[in-house]
Amino acid sequence: MDAVLVVKLSSFMKPTQLSGVFKDYQLRSTPVREEILEILIRKEMALSLADLKPHLSGASDRATVYRTLKTFLDKGIIHRVPDGGNTKYAVSGRSGLSTRDGHEHVHFKCAQCGLTRCLEGVRIPEVRLPEGYAPREANLLVEGLCQTCSRAVTTLAAV
Amino acid sequence: MDAVLVVKLSSFMKPTQLSGVFKDYQLRSTPVREEILEILIRKEMALSLADLKPHLSGASDRATVYRTLKTFLDKGIIHRVPDGGNTKYAVSGRSGLSTRDGHEHVHFKCAQCGLTRCLEGVRIPEVRLPEGYAPREANLLVEGLCQTCSRAVTTLAAV
DNA sequence: TTGTTTTTGCAACTGTGTTGCAAAAACAAA
DNA sequence: TTTGTTTTTGCAACACAGTTGCAAAAACAA
Q1: Which of A65, A83, B9, B82 could be joined to A116 by an S-S link, Cβ 3.0–4.6 Å?
Q2: 3-state secondary structure of B119
Q3: How many of the other CB atoms lie within 10 Å of CB of B114?
Q4: Structural domain that includes position A102
């Protein structure tokens, strides 16, 4: 499954293409930016500042990672994924860097493993707001057990 | 509107009744607890630890407020309202202390004034999750302009 | 290659969340 | 009402996310 994703990605966006992406966004191409963007593209889950750190090869400064994410955020390359705990980030569908659609999707946070995933294909249903409320953005966070963890529970119960 | 709420409340839960509430929950009745609970009941919005502070008469310690909220949370008296920033808290419908229903409701965070409100009557629509996902809790946060702020914008534009 | 502009790393500070511990308060029983 | 026990509070302290200023280093355009 991970392999599939990697293949999908490599044929979709080669490392060398990333610098082109930065040019499009009028950002200088740097090792840190390339690496962070690549990780965010490759991972299928939303990552926080702290989540990101262990994936980085060179021990880049916290502030740098922070500013990089902020920059990506400003440019619309990534979006915030509020998941109750620390803010997490995921590549925006709109950016063209993700194979996901650009619609607001549902995020699922597993109470067991703690991972937060964007659920592909699941969209936030229309919500009827009271008169006068002007919605701009919506975020639906569902918490519970993810596929992997709920399977583990079922298996355990069967023993 | 605020007045209506106050009236609704005073006829619904008098200060002296609060100590009874604590007994029900096997909690000792203390000034801090009574005050915090009363504020949470009276306010129609979710409050964070910091939001709560200026409403407290005696300058109670941050740790005390924190532990009080945690205790209320454990007992199910209040619930967390994730709103992107700091965690906020609101009285649970289930507790019987709120006139709201006990269903999971939608929260609206205003980008202008920053207030987060529980939208009464608006429920989270059913979401169809992929096979294997076991939902336990859902939180829908809509961001945009609230009634008051969007009205202000409209008025301003008309000038 | 060079001069300019942007990014990085370091240090430092704010604010939230969290815990240990002894003093103070609440409560149950006498 | 007083007393002994249990819980809560306030203080101090720490961890960590978020954030910023500043000078050195890197990226880039000419």
Answers
A1: A83
A2: strand
A3: 13
A4: 2-158
3-state secondary structure of B72: helix
DSSP B45: B
- Among B140, B141, B146, most A C-beta atoms within 10 A, so best to mutate, is B140
- A111 vs chain B: nearest CA distance in angstroms? 9
Sequence-ordered list of residues with C-beta below 8 angstroms from that of A74, at least 6 positions apart, any chain: none
| H helix and E strand count, chain B | 6, 6
Q: What is the pLDDT along chain B (159 residues), one digit of tens a residue?
A: 322 223 233 334 444 567 778 998 999 999 999 999 999 998 878 999 999 999 998 778 999 999 999 999 999 999 898 888 889 999 986 666 665 544 567 889 998 888 998 887 788 888 889 999 999 888 888 888 999 998 887 776 666
Give residues with Cβ within 8 angstroms of B142, minimum separation 6: A127, A129, A133, A135, A137, A138, A139, B106, B107, B108, B109, B119
**pTM score of the predicted model:** 0.79
Please tell me the total count of domains within chain B. 1
Q: What is the CA radius of gyration of chain A?
A: 17
Tokens of A96: 């063209």
Which residues in chain B are closer than 8 Å to A143, comparing Cβ atoms?
Answer: 135-139
Strand order in the sheet with A88-91: A47-48, A88-91, A78-81
Q: What is the CATH number of the domain that holds B45?
A: 1.10.10.10
pLDDT digits (tens, 9 = 90+) for B74-118: 999 998 988 888 899 999 866 666 655 445 678 899 988 889 988
Q: Which residue has the tokens 């924190």?
A: B66
Size of interface A-B (CB pairs under 8 A): 124
| CA A12 distance to own-chain centroid | 17
pLDDT tens per residue across span A86-144: 899 999 866 666 655 445 678 899 988 889 988 877 888 888 899 999 988 888 888 88
Nearest to B84 among A82, A106, A132 (CB): A82
